[in-house]
Amino acid sequence: MQNDIKVIPVIMCGGSGTRLWPLSRRSFPKQFVNLTGPRTLFQQTLTRAAGAGFAEPLIMTAEDFRFIVTEQMAALGVTSAATLIEPEARNTAPAILVAALWAAARDPEAVLLVLPSDHVIPDADGFRAAVLAALPAATAGQIVTFGVVPVRPETGYGYLQLGSDADPAQNAPQPLAGFVEKPNAARAAAMLAEGGYLWNAGIFLFQAKAIIAAFGIHAPDMLDPARAAVAEAKSDLGFTRLNAAAFAQMPDISIDYAIMERARNLSVMPWRGAWSDLGSWEAVLQEAETDDNGNASAGAVTMIDCSSSLMRAENDGQELVGIGLTDIVAVAMADAVLVAHKSQSQKVKDAVAQLKARGVKQATHLPRDHRPWGWFDSLIIGERFQVKRIVVHPGAALSLQSHHHRSEHWIVVQGTARVTVDDSVRLISENQSVYIPLGAIHRMENPGKVPMVLIEVQTGSYLGEDDIIRYQDVYARS
Fold first, then answer.
1. First and final CA of the chain: distance in angstroms?
2. CA atoms within 13 A on the CB side of 6
3. Where in the chain is the domain with CATH 2.60.120.10?
4. Quick one: fold of 368-472?
5. What confidence category does residue 1 fall into, taking pLDDT thresholds of 50, 70 and 90?
6. Which one of 3, 41, 302, 352 has the minimum C-beta count within 10 Å?
7. CATH top-level class for 2-271?
């Protein structure tokens, strides 16, 4: 019976987009950032796809984000059916195929809802109702894509062309005539005026067996390596690591190109509510709460005689001031600042590409590095020394390790640390310090119930994060 079916959300959160640089970077992309409220975009996606009619989510993510995913789910009290680790980025088609194979092996009739983790859909109740309204079509073998009724001539999205007999006012999937690539401004305006076109939201609902069958018809060479990637997966600390060699045999291709633009059993579910993929800083401004002059701000910001502008101060102790600005985006972080006209914010990715070509660290990495045990800020980096602020979660522990090229001084400024240095184990409290000689085998743990904070001063000939020899690690890092 239809009422007995529970939709399995497949949440895609392995991407590392750069369009919201400098806040979003490869080391900590936008889906894990608080951009539009107290919850991150990933957390908003989790709650949007939860409740009556929905099963525990299946998470698709990357190696670098696995503990961030776990931490952000735990903050909501959410558990996943599984968290599959993609060995490398291969675009959406391989990820969706392995998710479908994983689900079908457990329930041949499984229905999957594929969701990007970095979208904004304010009306969560309405969205869940739309998904359940599309469920009969999915269980009948249709691959249902979701299309957003456009409100402006947008050039940043692909479009879905409705069939000639479609009615986007109906609360049910409609015939789909085809896909349209991102248009230029004139074409976007013409399509909006003509009607019959929807923004392609990149959200899909289908039975696992239906999408597997579609791969069998349109991309059959992907099936064997995908099956091997799932069959030879390894369990690791609650994660499921897909087989890397098999996964690498699949092409780097999107689900649209591999399947959706070829399949004939497609229909589209119109979505008339608000939606954004936050694909640019201009889009963030469109979704933000604004003042009477159309300005949005975050952090310690002062705006005088400004209009239609977005300003964000992302660093503690930082003051960002704008005077006489119109249509400007200004995002200030500890290590990088972006200033752009909002209409040009789509070009941020071009700037990031230039920074990467020059080998600039800020192109991909934040000054804050997230780890499974907590995080650290790089405060000062100089010739043969570095200063960090390290925060360790309650009950967490760094690996038992040593270094070839550096020694370390630790000063506890909050909480209590259990410190191992070779054969010595002792507790270090606030305002106490310990010295870690070069080559010593050492570990830091937080035995308390509050975060432990310390200042680390490194000195030596090489201070890179790869100068670590691990002997034991509760997080199974090599």
1. 47
2. 13
3. 368-472
4. Jelly Rolls (2.60.120)
5. very low
6. 3
7. alpha beta
